[in-house]
């Protein structure tokens, strides 16, 4: 059997042979495999146009060009100038659309989005996660209670407009749901519901206002009836306590045997846990214990966290390594059927609080990460336990559109039985160019902060360009 050369995230080379790799310490995204090697070049299935755009954009993002581009993006996002806003300047809209928008976003309307979803499934993904990109961004120092109260008083007269925004949000999400199929995910952002949601989230209200509660219940019921799933995105800390509380309310309601689905304990709703928060493992363990006590299931989407630039730094692990340890430790605890706990995860990631697999409630894990090493660890551990006949939980993995395609397609192309491999998903955002600006800015910031990974992706794409060029020359005997 052939060996493949894998480039680690630190840029060195490993040789991975085609036999069981129990728990790779470092795993190349490009040659990621759960229980052996990828069977073909993972990026080979990318259509030429998508491939060329990825090659161009990722190479630009891995170069010093990213810094001025990032400054330009920040200017666009914050600028009130009509000249710079894509909604009022068609030239700006066209420029953004043909470059970063088409790379990272699924489309501005149903026809475009359906085409992108179809394309993703054709590439071999088990499914997609689709979200309507509209959201509100809070700046930490703008959210004191006094200001909020003043804003509430001032905006009480705007109740009708606020309710209209909730209605638009609900309709937008129901429209998004119609573009999805069974087993796909609808991604929801509570701040997308507008000022009513933002004020309630900022006050850390334990339950949403009645209008939002009715809207989200209607959305969840439609998701369950369609046998899709819904995940609630994590946002900035100023909103997160309330988001967690609203998510628990939904999981309590929809992740239990009921009229709509006949499964024992269906997991219709997943909440997002941000591993860069020092308290994340404890928050998750708290939800797991509550669910076990009350008899409902927990959907866990684990991310590292995307708001480090906007957020209270002291609540976040000091170093990237601590975040990594926490992330990998939580994944491991869950797959092994243990409750995660921050005090035991810290520093080692292995001495976990062990209460035995039977102690967890019904739970499902979605590993949402572009980090090839974390994804490979999750995948290998999950497959090993399935192979050994040991208890584990359902695991799925996913990356964002336009990011880490070598990780996603490497997983799709990897060997192993489909039933014992975690399902691979691609996460798509849709909306007008203007609505997607904050989402696009976060992708640019992320590419800058994970520069080594962006370079790895660019390197994988250049390798694929070379492979295609050689194949072309062979066919045409150049
Ligand atoms: C499918 C999908 C869905 C997502 N949904 C959400 C969501 O709902 N909410 C959300 O917040 N994010 C979300 N994200 C983004 C995610 O939180 C990360 O920002 C992003 O994926 C980068 O992390 P990574 O695991 O891919 O790996 P890496 O690139 O290895 O990690 C980068 C991350 O490490 C952390 N980090 C970097 N430097 C430091 C430091 N000095 N100290 C501490 N930590 C540090 C940050 O979280 C940073 O984003 C999602 C990502 C994916 C793939």
From TrEMBL:
Entry protein name: Proline dehydrogenase
Domain Proline dehydrogenase: 114-455
Cofactor field: FAD
Keywords, in A-Z order: FAD, Flavoprotein, Oxidoreductase, Proline metabolism
GO biological process: L-proline catabolic process to L-glutamate
Organism (species): Aspergillus saccharolyticus JOP 1030-1
UniProt record similarity statement: Belongs to the proline oxidase family.
Reactions catalysed, as given in the entry: L-proline + a quinone = (S)-1-pyrroline-5-carboxylate + a quinol + H(+)
Pfam families per the UniProt record, alphabetical: Pro_dh (PF01619)
Function: Converts proline to delta-1-pyrroline-5-carboxylate.
InterPro entries, per the entry: FAD-linked_oxidoreductase-like, Proline_DH_dom, Proline_oxidase
Single annotated GO MF: FAD binding
Flavoprotein found in the keyword field: yes
Highest taxon of source: Eukaryota
């Amino acid at each position: 059997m052939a060996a493949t050369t894998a480039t680690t995230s630190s840029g060195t080379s490993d040789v991975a042979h085609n036999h069981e790799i129990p728990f790779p310490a470092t795993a190349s995204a490009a040659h990621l495999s759960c229980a052996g090697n990828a069977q073909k070049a993972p990026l080979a299935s990318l259509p030429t146009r998508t491939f060329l755009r990825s090659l161009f954009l990722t190479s630009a993002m891995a170069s010093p060009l990213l810094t001025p581009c990032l400054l330009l993006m920040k200017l666009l996002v914050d600028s009130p100038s009509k000249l710079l806003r894509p909604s009022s300047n068609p030239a700006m809209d066209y420029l953004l659309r043909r470059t970063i928008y088409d790379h990272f976003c699924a489309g501005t309307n149903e026809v475009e989005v359906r085409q992108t979803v179809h394309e993703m499934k054709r590439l071999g993904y088990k499914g997609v996660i689709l979200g309507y990109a509209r959201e509100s961004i809070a700046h930490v120092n703008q959210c004191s209670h006094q200001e909020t109260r003043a804003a509430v008083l001032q905006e009480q007269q705007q109740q009708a407009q606020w309710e209209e925004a909730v209605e638009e949000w609900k309709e937008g999400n129901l429209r998004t749901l119609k573009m999805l199929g069974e087993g796909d995910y609808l991604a929801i952002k509570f701040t997308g519901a507008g000022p009513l949601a933002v004020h309630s989230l900022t006050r850390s209200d334990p339950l949403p206002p009645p209008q939002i509660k009715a809207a989200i219940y209607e959305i969840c019921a439609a998701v369950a009836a369609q046998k899709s799933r819904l995940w609630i995105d994590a946002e900035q800390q100023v909103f997160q306590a309330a988001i967690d509380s609203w998510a628990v309310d939904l999981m309590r309601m929809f992740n239990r045997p009921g009229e709509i689905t006949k499964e024992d304990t269906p997991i219709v709703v997943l909440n997002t846990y941000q591993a860069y928060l020092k308290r994340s493992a404890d928050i998750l363990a708290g939800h797991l214990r509550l669910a076990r006590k009350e008899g409902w299931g927990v959907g866990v989407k684990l991310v590292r966290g995307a708001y480090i630039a906007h957020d209270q730094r002291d609540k976040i692990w000091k170093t990237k390594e601590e975040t990594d340890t926490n992330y990998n430790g939580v994944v491991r605890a869950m797959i092994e059927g243990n409750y995660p706990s921050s005090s035991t995860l810290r520093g080692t990631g292995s001495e976990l609080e062990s209460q035995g697999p039977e102690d967890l409630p019904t739970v499902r894990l979605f590993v949402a990460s572009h980090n090839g090493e974390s994804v490979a660890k999750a995948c290998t551990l999950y497959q090993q336990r399935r192979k050994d006949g040991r208890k584990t939980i359902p695991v799925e993995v996913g990356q964002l559109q336009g990011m880490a395609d070598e990780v996603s397609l490497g997983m799709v192309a990897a060997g192993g039985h489909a039933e014992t491999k975690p399902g691979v998903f691609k996460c798509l955002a849709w909306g007008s160019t203007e609505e997607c600006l904050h989402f696009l800015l976060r992708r640019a910031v992320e590419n800058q902060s994970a520069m080594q990974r962006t370079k790895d992706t660019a390197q994988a794409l250049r390798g694929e360009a070379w492979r295609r060029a050689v194949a072309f020359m062979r066919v045409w005997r150049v």
